[in-house]
Structures are given as C-alpha cells and as structure tokens.
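subagent[fold] <- orchestrator: predict structure for attached chain, return tokens only, no commentary.
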Amino acid sequence: MTDEPVQQNEPIRLVTTLYPLEYFAKTIGGDLVEVTNLIAPGVEAHDFEPSPHHMRLMKEADIIVYNGSGFEPWMERALDGLNGDT
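subagent[fold] -> orchestrator:
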C-alpha cells in the first residue's frame, strides 16, 4: 500500500439538472470535472421528461447532482430505470 495520491487522467463526469447545480459543480470541481446540465434554460424542471439521450448521459455519469425534495419527480423514475445499469 502506498500513501501517494491516485492520479486521475480523465475528468469526473457529472450530470446536473439545474443551472445553479451546474454552476456550483463547475466552480468547485474546476478542471477535475466535466459537467453536463440536462435541463435547458426556460424548461420547467418539475415537468421535464428525459429523452433517451438524457438517459444515456445519466448512465455514463460518475455522479448525478439533482434537487431532491420532490422538485424533480421525474428523476426518481429515471434513476429507477437506470438502477439495473449503474
């Protein structure tokens, strides 16, 4: 076992659902993260329905950051759909 830090060659892939979450992830993660926001400006987050493309992005993500507390009810369904694949 070594005490040397692990070298990460690829950025951590994050998927966010809202612009503020995207902003925070990019600000905190800097060059260590690649952030993709699912919901375009002007789209109501609570009414959003992910496309197959969005589902693929979530499946390939290392981390998914979203607002819980029932604001995005579609996310629980999407995560259930990914459950067997993640």
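orchestrator: received. Logging for downstream: The mean pLDDT is 88. The helical segments are 19-29, 52-60, 73-82.
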